[in-house]
Amino acid sequence: MNRTLSRWGWLFTGPTVAAFIIGFVVPFVLGVYLSFTSFTTVTDSHWVGLKNYARVFSDDVFVHSLWYTAAFAVVTTVLINVAAFFIAYMLVKAIRGRNLFRSVFFMPNLIGGIVLGYIWLLLLNGVLGLWSRSITYDSTYGFVGMVLLMCWQQIGYMMVIYIAGLQSVPTEIIEAARVDGASNGTILRRVILPLVWPSVTVCTFLTITNGFKMFDQNLALTNGAPSRLSELLALNIFNTFYGRPGFEGVGQAKAVVFLLIVATIALVQNVLTRSRETKA
Q1: How many other C-beta atoms are found inside a 10 Å radius of the C-beta of residue 181?
Q2: Are strands 44-47 and 37-41 parallel, antiparallel or unpaired?
Q3: CA dist 261 to 1, 69, 138, 203, Å?
Q4: Element counts in the chain: helices (H) and strands (E)
Q5: Which long-range contacts (CB under 8 A, 24 or more apart) does 241-245 make?
Q6: Whole-angstrom Cα distance, residue 95 to residue 80?
Q7: CA-CA distance, 241 to 249, in Å (whole number)?
Q8: pLDDT higher than threshold 80 for residue 54
Q9: Global pTM exceeds 0.85
Q10: In the chain, what are the domain boundaries?
Q11: 164-179 confidence digits (pLDDT tens)
């Protein structure tokens, strides 16, 4: 068996490895290189060193987008996970129509981001129009609108993960806790939460990274208006790269900085939640 695998294994792994190298490794290395150059096309690049990175952090719009995105990611991570866990906790109980409720909560996740953005644009402008306002009147309106959109889209998906975690909790442990006189709140805090912490780790990772990476909903809902004050990082990078001739290198440098920020935050979050998971 081992001889067969060593002889013919490359035939099965080779195409996947080749696709990974061509589709990910080569563009990644080329992108990092181009962030240190001034270019208009890949074949027309001139080395400028750290000049692009200096221009990144001297860009006030980028700095504002960074903090705006960080606040957005924190708020959506907390709201989505709290709401998703609460809904999942209710829908693992023996209630009539729970499968229907699960399907209804999950359905928004099946709709594309651009479509969701325009749907919520119509809804929010219809409500704000009662006070002669629009979603682009102030960046606060845009922030709240994007938080509502993101929560509506993501809660159902995270709910499914939490339901899987809750259903894996042994009922014998919960019954034993009740026999010992533990209240429902104590059981939730001391028994259920520690046992579903792996689900918390996964959902927190997904919501943080999704919050930082959100692009299409931002483009459809506010497009950065007013005056690019509601522009998240992904949209800022897009507008720099494609909307400012001569700034392609700066846009690429922003993309590398963006990658480092998201990777660092995701790694730290994973380490912290997994350590809590181990203690639990």
Answers
A1: 7
A2: antiparallel
A3: 45, 11, 27, 19
A4: 14, 2
A5: none
A6: 23
A7: 8
A8: yes
A9: yes
A10: 2-34, 59-279
A11: 999 988 888 888 888 8
59-279 topology per CATH: MetI-like fold (1.10.3720)
Question: 117 and 217 in contact (C-beta within 8 Å)?
Answer: yes
* Residue 96, token pair as written in the block: 């009539």
How long is the chain? 280
77 Cβ contact list (under 8 Å, min separation 6):
204, 207, 208, 211
Q: 134-175 pLDDT, tens per residue?
A: 998 899 999 999 999 999 999 999 999 999 999 988 888 888
- Taking only the tens place, the pLDDT of each residue in 59-84 is 999 999 999 999 999 999 999 999 99
Angle at 88 between CA 85 and CA 91, to 5 degrees: 155
What pLDDT digit, counting tens, does each position of 205-227 carry?
A: 999 999 999 999 999 999 998 88
